[in-house]
Each structure stands twice: as structure tokens, then as C-alpha cells.
Please model this.
Amino acid sequence: MTSIVVIGKSHTACIKAAALRTADPLVKVINLNREDDVCPAELAKAHGRDRPLLVALSFQGNTHNILCLDEHPQKMTIGGMQVDEAERTSIPHSVFRDVLKLIIEDRMVEFLEEYRTAFAGAEIVMILPPPPLAKVVQHGGIAPVLADALKQGVMPMHVRRTAYECQTELYREIAANQGIMCLEPPSQALDEDGMLGHQYGSNDPTHANEVYGALVLAQLKELTHAAVE
Model:
């Protein structure tokens, strides 16, 4: 019997690595970026009567990095935040949040409704993405796929953190409107600024590693234990 099914894209890779290491038969992690893109109905059918207790979803987690990891030719900040000596165009907080909403909301609601219907009876959880790394360049170098994109440099930490906080705030609202809980990033993986701790970062500046994945997996197992008590 599978108790936990994790479904999503790139941010599930760290959870999948942790699950494979423990070879826990009660956990199944599906990274749709690396496997055949199976629709929710087919996934549910494959489980048959062996429906999981918990289905955890992780989609569109890197939007904040897409918008605010690399410096733009015209440097920017959010909400007038002064982060360095550079001349920066200030994007109002409300405008930045509206842009995120336009990018994320409709597709995220579609994902949640789709999987909730396919796995009727299971608890659905939205996994919040890990926060950005405080120091990107110093963390093991830049992944080749991102090296060209980051030629202008990396945005200051406080701008990246604000972008992330805008995104997760929006996720919480979407989940609440759908009657779904959000799984917060594990607190022990965060530094004093609320950023991802150096030891939990992957070999690129936008994802967490297997150690972080193991912490998230432990959180999910705690939820299933609570559900059966």
C-alpha cells in the first residue's frame, strides 16, 4: 500500500532522491519532468483501490527565481526597498504580486482541482518551494545551464526573498480558497534571514538537495501518521 504520493516537477527531485535512498514502499514520488507525463486520471487508475492517504503536489515553484534570480539590464527592486548603491527601478509590491498572480493562479487552481478529483478521498497538500539561497555564486559555482542567464549578476538577497515571500503568500491564499493545506519549508533548513541554508542547496541556485528532500519527506510522513491516529 502506498501511503504518500508526491507529484510535481523540478522541486520533487530532491524528495525523490531521499525516497529512493530509503526505498520506503509506502512512498511514491513522480517527477513529471523526468518521467512520462501521466495525467491524474491515469495515476489514480494505476493505484486502483490502493488509494494513498496523502497526495502532495509541487508545481510552479520556481516562478520567483525566473523573475528575480538574475539581474535585469535595468536593475530593479520591489516596494522601494533600498538594497545597495545601484540605481534601481522600484516595482510596487502590489504590482509584483499581481504579475505573480497572473502567471500562477489559473494553472495552479487547475492542478489542484484536477488532482483532488483524481484522488478523491485522499488528503491533498501543496508543498511550498524552498526559499532562495542567500549566496548564489559562492555556492559551488553556477550550473552551466544558468551561467549565461546570470552574466548580469544575481539580484540582492532581499529582493529575491521578497519575491519568494510574495509567491508563497499567494500560494497560501490559493490553497486556502481550495480547502487545501500548505506544507511549509522545514524550519531547520532555513538560515536567520529565512533563506535556504547553504548545506541544503543543490548544484544549481534554484533547487534544494536530497538532505532537504529528506526533511520534507519526514514532514509528509508526520501528516500521514496524524491522519491515521
Remarks:
- The helical segments are 13-22, 40-47, 63-68, 93-118, 144-147, 157-177, 210-228.
- The mean pLDDT is 86.
- The radius of gyration is 18 Å.
- The CA atoms of residues 81 and 90 lie 8 Å apart.
